[in-house]
C-alpha cells in the first residue's frame, strides 16, 4: 500500500509541471487552454479595476501591442485585495475595454490566494523561480512564463509592464 501511495504522489506531483496543464475559462465563460500559446512567452497578471495599480492596464495593452510577436498577456481579474474587483465578469470586460482598450485575453474572475485559490495561481506561487515564491501580496503581480510553459520570472505590483525588468526578458 505504501508503494502505491508513493507512486500516486510521484505521478501527481509531476503531472502538472507547466502552465499548459491548466484549463481555464475566459471572461466570457468559454473554455480557455493555455496550450495554444506554446512556443510564445506569457505574462500572467492578477488584475483589479479599482486599484491604485489599475492604470497598468494601459501599459499591459501597450506591451501586448508592441511585443505581440514575443509575448501574450493574460489578465486574471481577482477580488482578493480590498474588494477592488467587485464586478461581474461582464462588467470587468466592459471596464477594461472602455477605459484601457484591452484586447489581450482575460480570464473569468478567479481567486489568487486563500483557501479558494485557483489551481493555476497555487502552481505559480509555489513554483521555484529565480525571484521568489509565496503568496501574492497585491493586485498586478506578474508571472513571466517561457515558451515551454515554465515560470521564469515573477514581479511584484510596483514593476510596471514596460519596465526594463520585463522587456529585457522578452
Automatic annotation (TrEMBL):
Residue span of the signal peptide, if any?
none
Active-site residues from the entry: 51
Q: Which PROSITE patterns does this UniProt record tie to the protein? A: GLUTATHIONE_PEROXID_1, GLUTATHIONE_PEROXID_3, THIOREDOXIN_2
Q: Which GO terms describe its molecular function?
A: peroxidase activity
Alphabetical GO biological process terms: response to oxidative stress
- Key words of the record: Oxidoreductase, Peroxidase
> Can you give the residue ranges of the Thioredoxin domain?
13-170
Alphabetical list of Pfam families matching this protein: GSHPx
CDD domains of this UniProt entry? GSH_Peroxidase (cd00340)
Highest taxon, organism lineage: Bacteria
**UniProt feature coiled coil, ranges:** none
Family in the record: Belongs to the glutathione peroxidase family.
Q: PANTHER family, from UniProt?
A: GLUTATHIONE PEROXIDASE, PHOSPHOLIPID HYDROPEROXIDE GLUTATHIONE PEROXIDASE
Q: What is this protein called?
A: Glutathione peroxidase
Q: Which organism is it from?
A: Mucilaginibacter robiniae
Amino acid at each position: 500500500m505504501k508503494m502505491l501511495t508513493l507512486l500516486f504522489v510521484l505521478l501527481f506531483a509531476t503531472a502538472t509541471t507547466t502552465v499548459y496543464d491548466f484549463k481555464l475559462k475566459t471572461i466570457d465563460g468559454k473554455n480557455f487552454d493555455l496550450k495554444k500559446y506554446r512556443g510564445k512567452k506569457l505574462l500572467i497578471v492578477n488584475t483589479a479595476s479599482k486599484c491604485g495599480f489599475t492604470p497598468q492596464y494601459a501599459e499591459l495593452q501597450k506591451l501586448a501591442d508592441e511585443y505581440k510577436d514575443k509575448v501574450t498577456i493574460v489578465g486574471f481579474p481577482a477580488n482578493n485585495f480590498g474588494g477592488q474587483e467587485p464586478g461581474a465578469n461582464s462588467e470587468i470586460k466592459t471596464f477594461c475595454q472602455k477605459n484601457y482598450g484591452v484586447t489581450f485575453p482575460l480570464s473569468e474572475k478567479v481567486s489568487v490566494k486563500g483557501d479558494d485559490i485557483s489551481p493555476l495561481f497555487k502552481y505559480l506561487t509555489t513554483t521555484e523561480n529565480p525571484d521568489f515564491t509565496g503568496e501574492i501580496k497585491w493586485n498586478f503581480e506578474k508571472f513571466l512564463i517561457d515558451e515551454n510553459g515554465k515560470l521564469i520570472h515573477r514581479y511584484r505590483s510596483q514593476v510596471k509592464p514596460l519596465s526594463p525588468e520585463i522587456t529585457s526578458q522578452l
